[in-house]
Specification:
Largest sheet: 9 strands, mixed
CATH superfamily of one domain: Periplasmic binding protein-like II
Structural class: alpha/beta
CATH architecture of one domain: 3-Layer(aba) Sandwich
Number of helices: 13
Order of helices and strands: HHHEEHEHHEHEEHHEHEHEHEEH
CATH topology of one domain: D-Maltodextrin-Binding Protein, domain 2
Helix content: 40-55%
């Protein structure tokens, strides 16, 4: 049988990012946390956490943390349904989400759900093409991501498809693309890219210039709000979801550099395939928001 005291220590070390912070959370000494982890590893005969900064769980450690999070979720639902949670304690759900969704529709979709069920989110933010990796590693119970194929042991539900547009201000477009959006102009014009994992810009260029190796100046802007601001300040052009800049498009502040550069991005809700009322309601709220 797995000892929950050991499971809690392992999970706290990973979630809090260190043995000292885990000790504060568990209200025990740092040496006691270390001893529990050592005892757990000796009991199972394998390493569960890499002593790096911050500590990283091994593959076995991730499986055990996922197991504890599943237990937490089921225990919360059981005690809540039996009326054994009179103080209205919160449950925290780790969820992966891409920055564009978090900055726009995500909280609108789940605000009522969070208030009704005393749920808090521990949000892990990454590119929409990468969030499913968090789910695969057991770091989150669900994530917003691209790709319809579910991770092993999980399920996938389609949410919506958004067009990302290639945008700039009119003056920026006249300055850098006066002879059109061609290989020569693209090689010189600065482009805003969210981070080095962001594939939207490269997908757009591959669509317009198939088979061509296109290099160009890049302005990395890992903030959804600042990303649009950089474009509006005429420091770069970039790929932005249409729904995020409807007002700027209507006013003419921003224009499409090329209509050929539209990149559709489909979003899905990926989650553990665990039959709990709370996860099912979370899934239903997300699907309902787009229907």
């Amino acid at each position: 049988m797995l000892d929950n005291i050991y499971l809690e220590a392992l999970t706290a070390v990973v979630e809090e990012g260190g043995f000292d912070k885990a000790a504060l959370k568990l209200n025990i000494s740092q040496s006691a946390v270390s001893q529990r982890i050592r005892n757990f590893e000796e009991q199972l005969g394998r390493v569960l956490v890499v002593r790096s900064t911050p500590p990283e769980p091994t593959e076995d450690g991730r499986k055990l943390i996922k197991h504890l999070r599943t237990i937490r979720l089921m225990e919360y639902e059981l005690t809540d349904s039996m009326g054994l949670n009179p103080s209205g304690e919160f449950i925290t759900l780790p969820v992966g989400v891409n920055a564009d969704s978090l900055a726009t529709w995500f909280m609108d979709a789940l605000e009522s759900f969070m208030k009704e069920h005393n749920v808090l989110f521990d949000l892990y933010v990454d590119d929409e093409n990468r969030t499913h990796e968090m789910l695969r590693r057991g770091e989150v119970v669900g994530c917003i991501g691209t790709g319809s194929k579910p991770v092993k042991g999980c399920r996938s539900d389609y949410l919506a498809t958004f067009d990302y547009l290639c945008l700039s201000t009119p003056d920026f477009c006249r300055r850098w693309f006066k002879n059109g959006f061609n290989l020569e102009s693209v090689a010189k014009a600065p482009a805003a890219v969210f981070n080095r994992k962001d594939e939207t810009q490269s997908r757009m260029l591959e669509k317009i210039f198939p088979g061509e190796l296109v290099t160009h100046p890049i302005f990395y802007v890992p903030s959804t709000e600042s990303f649009v601001d950089v474009i509006c300040r005429e420091l770069a052009y970039g790929m932005v979801p249409e729904f995020q800049v409807e007002d700027q498009l209507k006013s003419g502040q921003l224009i499409e550099v090329t209509t050929q550069g539209r990149v559709p991005v489909s979003l899905y809700w990926h989650s553990w395939n665990v039959d709990t009322e709370l996860l099912n309601k979370l899934r239903q709220e997300l699907i309902k928001f787009f229907n």
